[in-house]
Design goal:
mainly alpha; Helix Hairpins; about 75% helix
Length: about 290
């Protein structure tokens, strides 16, 4: 290829779409960018993607958003929300190519759903607190599903909770849905009593040496933990995520302390490791005051 041909090829390339700074303009520019990338003269990798091949990226970007929320990094959060939005634009572009729906259909559908499910804001229904608002939402959701012609099982109270989410999150959503129709502990105290009961049952099952029974009882215990956390006003999934990160930081500090003493972790007895752990824990308390 000579210089003239290279220049012709370069000039024939598509022009990147530019937004105008408005919400609508920027979204349309992003949607147009995806159309260009998926076009025959666009990006070969982007053109090959399908709903199935993009699934891991959708999950990954969601967790990266959660990570930035945990860290409080707002610049990082803005960037990761953009990455997550790109996945939504990607899937709607694929649907647009298949002539099933467009980004406008997605936006319109969720806008209409939010209005329909908030009659205590846009209609004449009364909801004086978040619990009443949630019950109203769940009742309308059931009506929506019945109107869509779903089967009795599909439109039941516990429909709509995806199996692909983490188990603690799924348990939380199942409990919320049951609470939405009034099936719930009156307060966290009842859930805590149940939690104590499940701890004893799990202990007995583990000590019995029956792994299947122990697994079942540990599952019941975890479900009760989720219930107690939910009624206390927070997510067990997020609590576990934070505790895991805390353990990681402490263990890294433990490693640092041992290395500073010229010692290798795999060669140290448990009591020595415990002493390093307590030192790391004390240093953390000194930094946080907790």
């Amino acid at each position: 290829m000579n210089d003239g041909e290279r220049e012709a090829t370069k000039s024939a390339r598509p022009v990147p779409p530019q937004g105008d700074g408005t919400l609508g303009g920027e979204i349309e520019a992003l949607a147009e960018l995806m159309r260009i990338l998926r076009a025959p003269d666009g990006c070969a990798w982007d053109a090959e993607q399908t709903h199935r091949s993009l699934r891991p990226y959708l999950i990954e970007e969601t967790y990266e958003v959660l990570e930035k929320l945990d860290s409080g990094d707002m610049d990082g959060l803005r960037e990761e929300l953009g990455d997550l939005l790109l996945q939504i634009v990607y899937h709607t572009a694929l649907a647009e190519e298949q002539e099933t729906f467009t980004f406008a259909h997605v936006a319109k559908g969720i806008r209409e759903k939010m209005i329909r499910r908030h009659p205590h804001v846009f209609g004449d229904v009364e909801a004086h607190n978040s619990e009443e608002a949630l019950r109203s939402w769940e009742k309308i959701k059931l009506t929506d599903k019945e109107g869509d012609g779903e089967s009795r099982e599909e439109n039941g109270t516990l429909s709509g909770v995806p199996k692909a989410v983490p188990a603690l999150t799924r348990a939380h959503r199942v409990q919320e849905k049951m609470a939405g129709v009034g099936f719930d502990w009156p307060s966290a105290e009842g859930a805590l009593d149940k939690l104590d009961e499940e701890v004893h049952e799990a202990r007995a099952a583990i000590l019995s040496g029956d792994p299947e029974h122990a697994e079942e009882e540990i599952g019941d215990l975890l479900f009760s933990v989720v219930n107690a956390a939910r009624l206390a006003g927070f997510s067990a999934e997020e609590a576990l995520r934070r505790s895991t990160e805390k353990v990681i930081l402490r263990f890294r500090e433990l490693e640092r302390l041992a290395q500073a003493d010229g010692r290798r972790l795999g060669e140290l007895p448990l009591e020595v490791l415990d002493s390093y752990w307590e030192k790391a824990k004390g240093m953390e308390k000194g930094r946080t005051g907790r």
